[in-house]
Amino acid sequence: MKQTGRLTRARKKSTQGLVALLTDFGDSDHYAATLKGVILSINPRARIIDISHNVSPQNIQQAGYLLWASYQYFPDGTVFVCVIDPGVGSERKIICVQTDRHAFIAPDNGLLDMVVFQENIRRSYEIVHPPRFSSRPISPTFHGRDIFAPLAGVLSLGKSMGQFGKLYDLKKPSSMFYDSEKGTTTARILHIDRFGNLITNIPELYYGHCTIEVGRTKISTRIRNYAEAPKNQSCIIVGSNGLIEIVLKEGSAAGMLGANMGTPITVSLGDQSPNF
Amino acid sequence: MKQTGRLTRARKKSTQGLVALLTDFGDSDHYAATLKGVILSINPRARIIDISHNVSPQNIQQAGYLLWASYQYFPDGTVFVCVIDPGVGSERKIICVQTDRHAFIAPDNGLLDMVVFQENIRRSYEIVHPPRFSSRPISPTFHGRDIFAPLAGVLSLGKSMGQFGKLYDLKKPSSMFYDSEKGTTTARILHIDRFGNLITNIPELYYGHCTIEVGRTKISTRIRNYAEAPKNQSCIIVGSNGLIEIVLKEGSAAGMLGANMGTPITVSLGDQSPNF
Amino acid sequence: MKQTGRLTRARKKSTQGLVALLTDFGDSDHYAATLKGVILSINPRARIIDISHNVSPQNIQQAGYLLWASYQYFPDGTVFVCVIDPGVGSERKIICVQTDRHAFIAPDNGLLDMVVFQENIRRSYEIVHPPRFSSRPISPTFHGRDIFAPLAGVLSLGKSMGQFGKLYDLKKPSSMFYDSEKGTTTARILHIDRFGNLITNIPELYYGHCTIEVGRTKISTRIRNYAEAPKNQSCIIVGSNGLIEIVLKEGSAAGMLGANMGTPITVSLGDQSPNF
Tens of pLDDT along C41-50? Predict the structure, then answer.
């Protein structure tokens, strides 16, 4: 399609107050709504968007992927609140990270690794003096309501995160994606989506010359879109975030391959050099 | 109940910026949220309502029903974005339709048929110059993010759809609902809702004198509300959108009848004439 | 954690227009979206938050718990719309309740019991002259769209509920929670959440000296947070709303114990006196 000129992003000022939530609270309980109530009690003008509340319970890697795949499409100034937090109530830290465009609140459990790997981190803090909303003690099982949400509320008002924490030395991961040369990061499944597509951590530069083995099945058919896919055959495609996906036209690749998020995958490279 | 005077709808001006989303993206992935991020990046004042993201994967007929059942209750000026799109990345068209009160964006795959059948269509376009949000190429697997959402963002700002497309000759379907006289449209199940109610394409005018066969079960008990329904017996009721539904009090008619969306249904008419 | 001073809630004025929805409509149908369309057609500035639409079909007790667990975290002036309504279309009443901080609309089926038990009720009405949005007759199966939503819309505009109903003598329940002395209320499961935690109606004052039997399993291990829980063993914890929960670290207590919402539970008290 022909393209018209690119749209300019709205200025930061006008998007102030946007809060995006990512949790494993599910859609049946009141937990996510309670966070929203707290945020709106603090900042009545806050606008709250759900990334997902259906992260598999305590699946930090999947949450990290969903955040990474979506955050860059949000307006400048968005505050991301990520509560996948198996360590709630223990001594695990809660961190707050300011990048060039966004703010992130999450447990210090690796959830932010992909974002931190990709972004320029301006400041990061360990939260030690969280703002309080309720006069009751902080619940040891629901920091989302008692720490994350009040913090998101005040950040969405434009307040600085510095007053709630102390500077924290956040390590940038040395690698996140499969790399055949360095060999430090193995290929793996980051997420299986609703359609049964397997999203891998293999960058698109391998698209032209890799064979991927999932369980006992070798996959080497490459497609560019679903229309050109053969039926009943899992294929390799470049997904919408630049990572290689294993997909099945009009069906679930995960189902056909018997794959789940823990299924190991291996990459064989042909003799073509990567198309850097 | 006694009724007070009817409420006047708010004027169009004040509802400008409302975007309603209907997709098969599910609630577990980031896809719907990414659309919202793009829309809000373009129009920070946009207000986004989810119709549903749980349309059965690629079930165009079900999506068409859900849209039809809800759109008329939305404020004037609402932009409806419908992404159930098995043909994504192929040569299928994306269309944009302006009715007297609303705008609709959808693939040209029949999803809008029920709306087009019912509404006065002012203008319709094939999208050929979509507004661009990102500097990256359009993903062949995620037009929702790269075409539908940017277009929804600019339309929600009040911009005209004409600049993004060329006029398109949209055919009004000759019939959508069961009609015993014309015989052109057979009876079928449009949707099965959460409660297991079977929503058919049979208009309420047949309510008083029809027997409906679902699989091997004949249903002829008519009820006006759930309170008067016998237990353990599927019944015929006029649903809230004027279509006949098969329902089971405190249970799932679909479960009891072993019905799914593909189950054929047949209508037998008594000797009463329809109450036109 | 050290605590800074408590945040002040935003003034009522600025949160006017907030509507919170709790239904058993599920996430796959258009029902909840249709309510939103109606509310926004009446009050274009309304802001709508979903508590949950995944209450188990017609499970009034579960809905009552979810409302009770979340409402107090919402801003002053929030209008709560609760549509778990097995009696829709029958002679059951729709009531509207004004507390010191919030307004509630619900069928008169016990859904509001926990809120009414806890709050100071200023006024309550039976709705007899509901505001009308559509010119069509009220559907006997979808009062959510035709009565609850129009009423929520006008209340969110700041209108008084008195003009739509007649004063109603709402009984405050004499007890809602387990009480070993009065013996009027037995212990039971109010809700099972996404993680398989069993939320009981047993107040935290029994935490220090009770043993709870679920089915054939006695549970007496007490934990304060998940980190200190032994593996593979259901434990007693004080939940985030001050009620005792049965939980399993990194697993589902409901699954391990084979419990569902109807499973009876019994409480044995030790010789310690309650720590009032």
Answer: 999 999 999 9
CB-CB: which of C52, C73, C225 is closest to A28? C52
What number of CA atoms fall less than 13 Å from residue A29's CA on the CB side?
23
Kindly state whether C125 is in contact with chain B, defined as any CB-CB distance less than 8 angstroms.
no
Domains of chain B, with CATH numbers?
Answer: 2-167 (3.40.50.10790), 189-269 (2.40.30.90)
Q: What is the ipTM of this complex?
A: 0.93
- Taking the mean position of all CA atoms in its chain, how far away is CA B18? 17
* Overall average pLDDT of the A89-93 stretch: 88
Q: Inform me whether the C-beta atom of residue A66 falls under 8 Å from chain B C-beta atoms.
A: yes
CA–CA gap between residue A136 and residue B15 (Å, rounded): 40
β-partners of residue A23 are A83
Contact across the interface for C193 and A28, Cβ inside 8 Å: yes
C94 strand-pairing partners: C107
What b/e string do you get for C207-220 counting C-beta neighbours within 10 Å, with b at 16 or more? bebbebebeeeebe
Give me the helix-helix angle, B31-42 and A60-71, nearest 10°.
30
CA B225/CA B232 separation, integer angstroms:
15
- HSE on the CB side for A91, CA within 13 Å? 0
Neighbors of chain C by Cβ distance (3+ pairs < 8 Å): A, B
Radius of gyration of chain A (CA): 20
Closest residue by Cα to residue A164 from A218, A123, A199: A123
pLDDT confidence tier of residue C274, bands split at 50, 70 and 90: very low
Helix (H) or strand (E) holding A57: none
CA contacts within 13 A on the Cβ side of C2: 9
Whole-number average pLDDT of chain C: 91
Helices in chain C by DSSP H: which ranges?
A: 12-15, 31-42, 60-71, 113-118, 143, 149-156, 253-257
Task: Give, as one character, the DSSP assignment of residue B264.
Answer: -
Instruction: Tell which of A19, A41, A126 to mutate to test the C interface (max C CBs under 10 Å).
Output: A41
**Residue-wise pLDDT tens digits, C178-235:** 998 887 788 999 999 999 999 999 999 999 989 999 988 999 999 999 888 999 999 9
B270 by DSSP, 3-state: which?
Answer: coil
Question: Which chains would you list as touching B if contact means 3+ CB atom pairs under 8 Å?
Answer: A, C
List, for residues C141-162, the tens digit of each pLDDT value: 999 999 999 999 999 999 999 9
- Residues of B numbered 34-53 whose beta carbons fall under 8 angstroms of chain C's beta carbons: which are they? 47, 49-53
- Please identify among residues 74-113 of chain C the ones whose CB lies closer than 8 Å to any CB of chain A: 74-75, 78
Contact C51/B86 with Cβ under 8 angstroms?
no
Show which of residues 154-193 on chain B sit within 8 Å of chain A, judged by CB atoms: 154, 163-164
Which band of pLDDT confidence, cut at 50, 70 and 90, is reported for residue A164? very high
- Across the interface, whether the CB atoms of C73 and A131 are under 8 A apart is answered no
Residues in chain B: 276
Biggest CA-to-CA distance, chain B:
65
Q: With a cut of 80, say whether residue A274 has pLDDT above it.
A: no
Phi/psi zone of residue C183: left (φ > 0), alpha (ψ -120 to 50 degrees), beta? left
| Reported confidence tier of residue B6, pLDDT bands at 50, 70, 90 | low
Q: Each residue of B114-126: pLDDT tens digit?
A: 999 999 999 999 9
Residue C95 contacts residue C168 (beta carbons within 8 Å): yes
Terminal-to-terminal C-alpha distance of chain B = 26
